[in-house]
Amino acid sequence: GSSLLTGPEGLMAKERENLKRLKCLRRYRQRYGVEALLHRQLKERRMLATDGAAQQAHTTRSSQRCLAFVDDVRCSNQSLPMTRHCLTHICQDTNQTLFKPCQGSEEVPCNKPVPVSLSEEPCCPLHLRLPPQMYVPEQVLAVPEELGAAPTDLYLSAAELQPTESLPLEFSD
């Protein structure tokens, strides 16, 4: 900062005072001495604690498997985050409230887990009931027979549309 403020003629008293203030503001939040040493040690301890916790959480998380049993064989799928069951068996957990089994239809029952939504009965995409169609296409009106067959003598042929020499050019259209 001082190299920018100094010129060939030097600094005036007011400029020296402003330069002092600027240097003080640059160091305002920096730690010095024992305080800086303790702060650096605290940051290092926090980094080690969070790195160790993140690695431990990762290894614990990667080893979690679903607790459900199918035909006396434990499910080998990964469990969902913060749960003990996979997506297929999440409805076996009595404490969870995010999923419900699909009700299916009368003919084909379905117990596939479906996320709870705003609807009363959540369904999987296979059993989703669509709302009634709101758009009704307009019916095409039938053309009466007498309007459909137009007389051909009303139309002029290409030869009749050509200008003749007897008429002036402005009247030929």
From TrEMBL:
Predominant subcellular localization, coarse grouping: mitochondrion
GO cellular component annotations of the record: mitochondrion; NSL complex; nucleus
Protein keywords: Chromatin regulator, Isopeptide bond, Mitochondrion, Nucleus, Phosphoprotein, Ubl conjugation
InterPro entries hit by this protein: NSL2 (IPR026316), Znf_KANL2-like (IPR025927)
Keyword NAD belongs to the record: no
Cellular compartment(s): Mitochondrion; Nucleus
Keyword Phosphoprotein: yes
GO biological process: chromatin organization
Domain KANL2-like probable zinc-finger: from-to ranges: 72-127
Entry function: Non-catalytic component of the NSL histone acetyltransferase complex, a multiprotein complex that mediates histone H4 acetylation at 'Lys-5'- and 'Lys-8' (H4K5ac and H4K8ac) at transcription start sites and promotes transcription initiation. Required for NSL complex stability and for transcription of intraciliary transport genes in both ciliated and non-ciliated cells by regulating histone H4 acetylation at 'Lys-5'- and 'Lys-12' (H4K5ac and H4K12ac). This is necessary for cilium assembly in ciliated cells and for organization of the microtubule cytoskeleton in non-ciliated cells.
Subunit-structure text: Component of the NSL complex at least composed of KAT8/MOF, KANSL1, KANSL2, KANSL3, MCRS1, PHF20, OGT1/OGT, WDR5 and HCFC1.
Protein name: KAT8 regulatory NSL complex subunit 2
Protein's organism: Corythaixoides concolor (Grey go-away-bird)
Gene this protein is translated from: Kansl2_1
